[in-house]
Structures are given as structure tokens and as C-alpha cells.
Fold Amidophosphoribosyltransferase.
Amino acid sequence: MSELDLFFENKMNEECGVFGVFNHENAAELTYYGLHALQHRGQEGAGIVTSDGQTLHQHKGEGLVHNIFTQQDINRLAGIHAIGHVRYSTAGGGGIMNVQPFLFQSQTGRLGLCHNGNLVNAHQLKGYLENEGSIFQTTSDSEILAHLLKRQRGDMLSALKESLLYIEGAFAFLLLKENEMYIALDKLGLRPLSLGKIGENGFVVASETCAFDVIGATYIRDVKPGEVIRIDLEGMTSESYAVKGEQSMCSMEYVYFARPDSDIEGINVHQARKNCGRILAKEAPVEADIVVGVPDSGLSAAIGYAEESMIPFEIGMVKNKYIGRTFIQPSQSLREQGVKMKLSAVHSIVKDKRVVLIDDSIVRGTTSRRMVDMLREAGAREVHVRIASPEIKFPCFYGVDFSTYDELVAATHTTDQICELIGADSLAFVSVDGLTKGIGRDSKLGKNCGQCVACFNGDYPTYLYEDVKSANKEVK
């Protein structure tokens, strides 16, 4: 990664996205397009495993989906079943060995496996399995499930249900055998996972419903917490491997990770963000001339803020959609202005204006400082920053890449201190109650359909082992 890439690498990132197709003649091609729709969930690597009913085929690589797969690669991925994965490395680090789906070979056949999430007892399970003779081929916690499966008796479904009882944390698993696909979600539903139909007898599964739209699939329902689904050529069966607890969908899926055209358990992401913007306007009003959203995930909240406050919404910042990782090392002066290669202020819109700048979150604060500076350089008279999520004060151990307190500016600074650090005229965050009300899971989905807010208030939905709480991000 170049220095310019590091300059941009200060927003949060999610671990990955998963996609699967069962019983469709264009399984590999559909999975390619599904992964392309989920590219925002991971840009470090991608892979596809297909089955032709007799054997499993694999292709994977580091980088973006369109750079990894050629038409020839897709043609070589024979079969009517497929699973795919896009990855952002948090647990286990990067490298081709950790790019998924993994493909395992044993005397009982082949198995493809991919995973979204993070296991909080991975260290303990790896220690146990290694003492029992397991040899791990990757540094990813996802591999743990394959080793657990080989230690269980009975058929695949029974072995999977038994193995999942050992695992704690956030996970959405897809597993592929020659003529079977298995889907499993953690008992708290920390990660989104949806089922769909395609063609007469085909099934699809994806981290986000936006992946269904691009391939013409029809949404059926979301996978339930603690559910294991088996799909074969006879159809689909569902069982529970654990008693469902109080649901804790990750709040950051609605705030930042998911695409605005996705629905998570029936709640549209754009509408949820817009609602949070409306509540933010009520909780933190300010006199201003225009409302500007940070592209892209701040735009929905900015629209809501503008509508509620009756302050005009303007496109005051534009994102360069073609900026990518550069192989040309920039000069020091260009590095210092690096954010301008990714975002640009619209001078004629913000000049001499009192601007309300809406963003989805503040993690480290460096990006916010650059954007405030950019607006001032473009002539903004005042810059009032409003954030459509609460202060992120606590690390995430479930697959989001801020796992230590020293990465979080709100863990060590007050709101007034952060305001001074980023150079804003004022700063305010939506409250935790405002966020949960804006997303509206309890009111729309009923009791016990809540969300995880641990990064805001430290109330973690699972037990955390000491090695997890003290782990340094660099060794994850």
C-alpha cells in the first residue's frame, strides 16, 4: 500500500461480504456480479468456489473483483452451485492464503467455506484444536469451523450444528459441498444475511439484498439468528442450532457499511440514515445557510437533516469515483493534500456560506479535519459538523477494524476537544437513543429485534475473553 493509500485509510472497514447461488446454470457468472455488488464490503481479495455435482473448482486472488476474474476464469468455474467472498482483512491479516472461500480436501470429499464476521474465542479454539493435532493452513479464524467439523460424528448437518455450538462471536457462514449448500448465522444475528430465489428452482444468499437486484433474484427472507439452512436439489430445510438470544444486529451496518439500496430485515438503509439525520437536526440544531453531506454514506442523513431543519441541501462536496490505489508515489505536497484527490469541495456552492457538514461517523478524526479544512479553503464562512451516529468510544471485536481504544478519538477526548481537533465551529453527535429510534428495529420488527451499540456504550452482547480485549490490532 502506498503512502497515499495510507493517507486515505482512516475510515472504518468491515470484514467482508458473502454470496452464494444454488442450482443455476450460470452460478459462477451470477456470483461474480453478486460479489461486484458487495465490493464495498471488502477490497483486498475475492474468490469463488463452484460445484458441478462431482467436484469443486476454485479461483481467487488479491485485489478488486473485476481485476481478479476474467471471462476465461469464469468459464473454468464449472457447475450449477457457487459461493463467493470479498474480503477486508481484520482477523488474521492479509495475504492470498487468507482470501476466501477456502477449499478443503478430505477422504469424505471437498468443502468450500466462507465467512463474514469475527470469532471472539478464536484463540482458545485454535489452541485446543492444535493440541488435538490440527495444523492450520491460514491465520484466519474462519478456518476453525472446518477443523471442528472433522471432529464431529454423524451427517454434515448434525456435524455443523454441533460445531457451531463451540463458536462465539459474529458470523455468517456459507459452506458448499458437491450437491449441498449450508448457511449459518450466529445466535445473536450480528451480521446481515438474506435468502432469495432465482429461476424456477434456484436459491441465492447474500450479505446484502442489493446483490439480489443486480442478478434479478427475488428476496425471500432474512436468515434467522441461530439458524442453519441446508439446500440441496430437493429444496431447502431449516433448523436451529442454538436458542435465539436477544438479537443484536450491528448498528454500523445501517450507519456506514451497507449500501443505501439494501434492506436489512425489512428496514431500508437509506431511510434509516435519513431518519437519523432528522433526529440529529432536532437534537443538535444550528443556524446555517446550507447542509452538505459527505459522499457517500453521509448523504442520506444530510437529506434528513435538511428536510427537518428547513435548511437547503446542497452538493457541496463531490467524490472522485475513479480514485483507487495508486502505484505512483506522490510528492510530500500532494500527500498533504491527498484527500482532495478523493473529495473536492464545490467552491461556488460553499463560498461565504455557513455550512452544516453531515458525516456518518468519526473514528480517528483525521478525515474530518481534512474535510473541514477543505471547506474553509473553498471559502466557507462557518463549518458546523454533525455526525449521524453517536461517539465511537469502545473497540469492536466482531469484525469492524477498530479493535483498540487508541484508534478512537472519542475514547480519549470530549466532544469539545474533538471539535477543536478537527477545526470545526461546532460539533454534535446523534444520541444512542436517537440512533436506535431512527433505525427503528424494535418498533418495526418487534421485541428482541434490537441492535448492537457496543462501540457507543461498551455494552457487548457476548462474553469477551481477556486475550480479545487486550489484543493489538496489528496481530489480528
